[in-house]
Write a structure and sequence with these properties.
alpha+beta, 10 helices, five-stranded mixed β-barrel, Endonuclease, Chain A, single chain, about 375 residues, 3 domains, WH_DNA-bd_sf, globular, Arc Repressor Mutant, subunit A, SH3 type barrels, about 35% helix
């Protein structure tokens, strides 16, 4: 199985793309490797690898040692958090050990909730939500667990209930696309610090929440507004293909007809992204601001296994998160880059998509945006 497929399946277990890449890179050196080496191999910032290592250690995927100021390592500190130094040496746990730990956790949850496992040993990838409080609880948990992006459609009456979770997500650098429906009127500053981009719609949209393309929640608008409503149910979809379809419905229908009211300020440059939607979102903000952007991407032709460095000037995007929309199909996310030829003259234009891209010419696993004059 190739690394891209393994990465996708690890993300289905709840890892972010960044964490999955870090673990897979560490696995190639069972005797341990450094965060610097992994950063070089994955084109991630070393600070991002440090953060991933801590998250992976907390979930039992790796152990790590942190160097002290003399450059020595302390065996007793393996796996602990450190305030002054980041992880320096990573030791991956074998996949069999990790998977057994996950199975044990699931079995323990079944026992704790008094759930009888089906005779076939299979688990249905959805749960029925029967009350507004349960719906809020599942939405809050999805937002809290997100590491890359959240797409959320809620009635205005639910905004205050989820505001803390949304603010924490934005502070974690999660991309938050928020749609609020209903008669209540808002100003743009209402969404500062709780959304990356926000839209409003005066009609009643269903409740939809999708986190990291891995888990989705859907319910009627009535269930979100009335705690006493009867005969209304929500569904938690804990299955990536279903969540992907739900994300497509969100951006392909309700998001399109809502009115954009707020967009955040762009990130400082230079900045490296491993999530294509975040890269395209930031590139779009920069184009709107009139910034000339240089793109450096680790990319490969669709269907190929070998990544190479691709560089050029950002000339356009394909996206539907921000107005004006430029896309040929729902949830399209692509950068259009003009390569320079060997003499620095204008060259060909190419399209860059994410790891699972099939329409674009190249798939990417990391994208660095920088101001053109400082590239």
């Amino acid at each position: 199985m190739d690394r891209a497929t393994l990465s996708t399946q690890l993300q289905q277990l709840g890892l972010s793309e960044q964490d999955a890449r870090t673990y897979l890179a560490a696995l190639e050196r069972e005797d341990g490797t450094t965060t610097t080496t992994i950063a070089d191999e994955t084109s991630l910032d070393e600070s991002a690898v440090d953060e991933s290592t801590r998250r992976l250690a907390a979930r039992g995927f790796v152990m790590f040692e942190s160097a002290n100021e003399t450059g020595e390592t302390d065996e007793t500190e393996r796996g602990r958090d450190h305030e002054t130094t980041g992880p320096s040496t990573i030791y991956p746990r074998p996949p069999a050990t990790v998977l057994e730990s996950i199975r044990t956790t699931l079995d323990s949850l079944e026992d704790g909730f008094g759930v009888d496992a089906p005779a076939t040993g299979s688990r249905l990838p959805f749960d029925v939500l029967e009350t507004r409080s349960e719906l809020l609880e599942r939405l809050a948990a999805s937002i809290e667990g997100a590491t890359e992006e959240v797409a959320l459609s809620i009635p205005a009456s639910m905004l205050a209930d989820l505001e803390d979770e949304l603010r924490d997500a934005v502070q974690r650098d999660v991309l938050v696309a928020l749609l609020v429906s209903g008669d209540e009127e808002f100003t743009a500053d209402r969404f500062e610090e709780i959304a990356s981009v926000a839209r409003v719609w005066s009609r009643r949209a269903p409740v939809i929440g999708v986190a990291d393309y891995g888990r989705g929640v859907v319910a009627s608008n009535e269930m979100g507004t009335d705690s006493e409503v009867a005969d209304e149910y929500g569904i938690l979809l804990d299955y990536q293909p279903f969540a992907f379809v739900l994300m497509g419905s969100f951006f392909g229908s309700y998001w399109r007809i809502a009115t954009q009211l707020f967009e955040t300020e762009p990130d400082p440059l230079p900045r490296t992204y491993t999530n294509i939607r975040r890269a395209v979102f930031q590139a779009t903000l920069r184009l709107e601001a009139g910034t000339d952007v240089h793109v450096t991407a680790e990319a490969r032709p669709v269907g190929d296994e070998t990544f190479d460095t691709v560089e050029g000037r950002l000339v356009d995007v394909r996206q539907s998160l921000l107005e004006p929309v430029h896309e040929s199909f729902a949830i399209e996310n692509a950068l259009i880059v003009e390569r320079e030829d060997s003499e620095g003259a204008e060259g060909e234009r190419i399209t860059l998509g994410g790891e699972g891209a099939f329409v674009e010419e190249l798939q990417t696993r990391s994208i660095r945006l920088s101001a053109l004059e400082s590239a």
